[in-house]
Amino acid sequence: MTGLKHVLLSLIGHVTFREVHGAVIPPPTGRHSVSRTKIEIQYVNTDDPIAPNNVTTAFLATVYYPTSESFTGAPVPYLDPALAVLFEDAYNVTAGSFTNLTTDAIIWDAPLLKHTGYPTLLFGPAGIGPPVEMFSILLSDLASYGYTVIGADHPYEQPFIRWPNGTALYGLPPFSDLDFDPSILYDIRVNETKALIESIPLIETAIGGAINSTHIGTFGHSVGGGAAVRALLQDGRVTTAINLDGSILGEDQYIDAVKPGILLSEEGYADPRWENFASAQTKWWKHLAVEGSLHVDFTDLAFWKEVTDVKAHSMSLGDINGYRQVEITRTFVRAFFNFRPSGLGGADIRRPF
């Protein structure tokens, strides 16, 4: 068994980005252009403690994928304006701080680049937000290397989503506390992960090409990270998982996945359930902790804190430079999914740079 190895990522050298002009988010670093599209996935969740009448009949998939088309024209807002305003209000930041964030790299609804052969990655966002859209810096980067990345937003749980037909749906306010067993939410997320896999033909039709349906990885942040581990344990179609700073609940902590993965955490994360989980594993697992980071630094807010005043309004953003955090998260997530023991091929994570 490979034991838990806690690595402080404090020795990573100087990182470089293309100069950020105004409030343009860091561009993807791979060679492919990137597109995204939204798809409504029909799936009935019963006994949903958040939804009206405790039932949801669909969830939102946002797909990031490589394309042969190129971004043209001036930078455009990368967040839905209603989502941006909602989080501006939640963080009590200067009006326009998030609304004015733009991209000069992500295209809407372009056709899929054919035959990349890369695995399909399923992503789960944090519980009660932020939603998938606020992880675009990481997800678009993966897509630029050839991966198809599918993020799932659960309606009513996420503070805001917009369906493909333009309908806005507001859910729980940001930073709400759950008044039910969070393991229920994990199960909902896992069920939707399974539904995503079964919906691959629908997704292929929507983006205009075939994606990898035999090599599938899961990853996520917070609740999404814990649910990614649970999906790995429950679904044989999932080959590997990354948990970004999420709790491992219940009996999950004692089960051997017999598959590789990574636990990537904020500095000082000392949840004994992570230790229990790692001790139970017989395949390759590592615990990597990012020095100077806190929980929200694994979202796009890591970059936002460098170009807005959001850090002054959040106790969950650490002192690590936001550009550096973006580089670390992107590099280690990508390196792991390229990791040979995962069966997906690629570079050795021990030498990710």
From TrEMBL:
Q: Which residues form the signal peptide?
A: 1-22
Tell me which UniProt keywords the record has, alphabetically. Hydrolase, Lipid degradation, Lipid metabolism, Signal
Q: What is its EC number?
A: 3.1.1.47
GO molecular function annotations of the record: 1-alkyl-2-acetylglycerophosphocholine esterase activity
For biological process, the GO terms are: lipid catabolic process
What protein name does the entry list?
1-alkyl-2-acetylglycerophosphocholine esterase
Q: Recall the taxonomic lineage recorded for the source organism.
A: Eukaryota, Fungi, Dikarya, Ascomycota, Pezizomycotina
Q: Which Pfam families match?
A: PAF-AH_p_II
Against PANTHER family, the record matches this protein to: PLATELET-ACTIVATING FACTOR ACETYLHYDROLASE
Q: What SUPFAM superfamilies does the record tag this protein with?
A: alpha/beta-Hydrolases (SSF53474)
Gene3D superfamilies, alphabetized: alpha/beta hydrolase
Tell me where on the tree of life, at the top rank, the source sits: Eukaryota
The enzyme's main class, written as a single word, is: hydrolase
